[in-house]
Amino acid sequence: MVAQRPLRVVRCGGSQLSGARAVFSADAKYLLCASGDYVKVYSTATEECVHILQGHTNLVTGIQLNPQNHMQLYSCSLDGTVKLWDFTDGILIKTFVVGYKLFAFYTLAGSEDSVFIIIPKKNEESLDSFQLVSVKLPKTPDQAVEAKELSLILDDIGQSPKCTAFGREVYLLFWMFFFYIKCINYILATSRKGANNYFTCVACHPKEDCIASGHKDGKIRLWRNFNHKREYTFSTLHWHHDVVMDLAFSVEGTSLLSGGVESVLVQWRDGSDCKKEFLPRLGSAIEHISASPDGTLYCTSHTENSTYSKTTFLLLRCDIKTGLVIDPRTKALVLNGKPGHLQFYCLQTDKQLYNLDIVQQEYIHQIGLNQVDLVKAAFSARGSWLATVEQREEKETELELQMKLWNYDEQTQSFTLNTRINMPHEDHVTALCFRDTDELEDGTPTLVTAGKDGQFKVWVLVDDSDSEKQSMGWNCDFVGSYHNYPATNCCFSEDGSLLAVSFEETVTVWNSDTWDLICTFCHPPGKIQNLCFGRLSCSKYLLGTTDNGFLCCWNLLSCALEWSAQLNVMVLQPDPLSENIAAVSQLLEGSDLFVFKPNEPRPFCIQRNVCRERVQWAVFIPRDVPESVGSEKHQWLSRSQLYFLTETQDLLTFSTKSTEERLTPSSKQLAVEESLPMTPFYLLLGKHRHQQQSKENADLGTAVVQSHLAQVSPAIKELLHTPAHVLPSASFLCSIFINSMLISKENKSAGEVVEVEMDSEKAEDESDEDLDLTEMEQDMNPTEFLDEITQTKLSKSQEKQLRKIRRMDYSWVAVL
């Protein structure tokens, strides 16, 4: 009997990506990104995550390739350890325990057994001053080793990894010491003039004695002659209007890359202010810039927690105002993306599918400027309609609101704007929801919005067609209120017959056909924070949570409180395919999960300390195929999967599989295929031959040759994938392998046989015209007749029959 796997919390996305600079592999086939306490390995060809390196217990702050072995990776973390990985296979090789919080990590090709790290100056509690030290890594066979031999390099330096850079190793200490002293003198001299020249980042030229520094005033300075006795010189490059956030030289040093709050990647050619190129509209401020060793790819990390190389690998913003919404069509997670955009996020591949521009305005990156923000989003049952709410608040009394209704276009496979409504409410919109039964029953689509102005409004789709064109638009059909209390939540029942709207401490239930008020619930006291109906057999229940920590369940048939519990529930999420409801409560030790049915107040599944952070949002996503779960206690995960998002942008879920097991099979196969050498034999028999589409050939002989090669390909594949120690000798396999690659003569003559058959048919058609010639053929010698036949090319079987005919005696023909 197979042992049941325990249910555990697995991180499936999110985490902080901008905490450390991304690194390319030596062959630029992989991009390695620090993601929370993980290191993720992405393929630059397909953007698939092929490995997840997990082992750290705190935030990863730095990653670097091993200079002695480019197939290995170093990573450091706030947990005080340095780990060495084989990132191509996802294997942890060794752990070095330093004992301090590590904020940055550097390696040099000339230092075989030493690395450089930034640690707190005094102790772990004091984080106001830092120092750069050298750590000697012991060479022992043990997997966990203590690295306590530290050597001080520089004192009182910046915490950020961008504040320290290593140039050519010959001038390492010389560069750092003199440049450090001269930069301090430069700041002291220029700060008296009122200039904002504070350093923000630094980068060293890979080939020359040159250092580039970024400054708070948006200028870039190139320093030279700092390693001579004479006075240093510098030149200035200026395009950024605000702080320069990162700098990076190309591999050969011919270009300098810079980024800032403008979301524009600037490339400076040959250190000239006149030779610059731009890559604009990258979404948000650029935090880090990385270049591949071959110079073909660049990677930027952004403050909105995104990483760009060819496409976006991951994007979960720090401020999620729309919540977690599911697109019914693609099963993608929809939430805030770039400023003014909705992103469609694939949970299986942990990357962004595409962005939908909602605000449709150019984002102006300026500190202190209030921008239009996307705050609400909701889909209809089939995903045909999308409702969004955007707002801009200049002051407390100046509020701009706009609601947009988007229709899905089947031809363009995208959403198009249908209706724009200015100021749908006089105050902030707090909730919006569609009636799901309208699309399922081909009814009129209905949308309900709730606002702090004390009203909820019902919007319906009406026909605005005229004699010139046909059009459909959304209009307000009903406005409801309850004692002018602010409306905070709204939701429809499963059959769409009831609408529940909460007004501060009171829950109201309305008839969705006549919009008459049916009943109200106002106990226990407390403002309503979450509201939802039960489903299936529990559809007669209505549940809500209050700000004083109560979870209440009301019976709609008896109009009375069924039960209540004090759990301090922060998130309440129903499963759309079952009666189960998930509630996440916040305690001092962490967040707890309770899964229950409304008709049974006792939860059937309790998970303590699912995470240390506060859970902001949660959502159930239906599975395409039900998953077999061994334990009856975990059957609630068989048809739907629960995802929840924390304050630190960690997207978590429950699973019985490990993180590495949850990678897609295509990702694992990709890692194996990319490790194969690119030889001529590989090009002949590898994946490139299978990717090419064969053209239709009229010649039968060409088709026979192709089919013959296709038949032997499984044997060749088996030969290449069989371990060498179990194969027969090479001399035995050589003749078999060569014969399998040859083409037999029968296949060569196949086309010629077709020509003989066509000629015979043609001869039969002309037989009537040659009746007079038959008498002459009878007078001819049979041997001469046979010689004429042999002049035509025949197959082997026909040649055998012809030889038998030649041996026969034809003398009796002469008597006739």
UniProtKB/TrEMBL annotation:
Domain WD repeat-containing protein 75 second beta-propeller: 324-649
GO molecular function terms listed in the Swiss-Prot or TrEMBL record: RNA binding
Subcellular location(s) per record: Nucleus, Nucleolus
Superkingdom of origin: Eukaryota
WD repeats by residue range: 53-95
Keywords, sorted A to Z: Membrane, Nucleus, Repeat, Ribosome biogenesis, rRNA processing, Transcription, Transmembrane, Transmembrane helix, WD repeat
Main location: nucleus
Transmembrane segments annotated in the record for this chain: 170-189
GO cellular-component term (any): small-subunit processome
GO annotation (BP), single: positive regulation of transcription by RNA polymerase I
InterPro entries on file: Beta-prop_WDR75_2nd, WD40/YVTN_repeat-like_dom_sf, WD40_repeat_CS, WD40_repeat_dom_sf, WD40_rpt, WDR75
Annotated SUPFAM superfamilies: WD40 repeat-like
PANTHER family: WD REPEAT-CONTAINING PROTEIN 75 (PTHR44215)
Record's protein name: WD repeat domain 75
Source species of the chain: Chelydra serpentina (Snapping turtle)
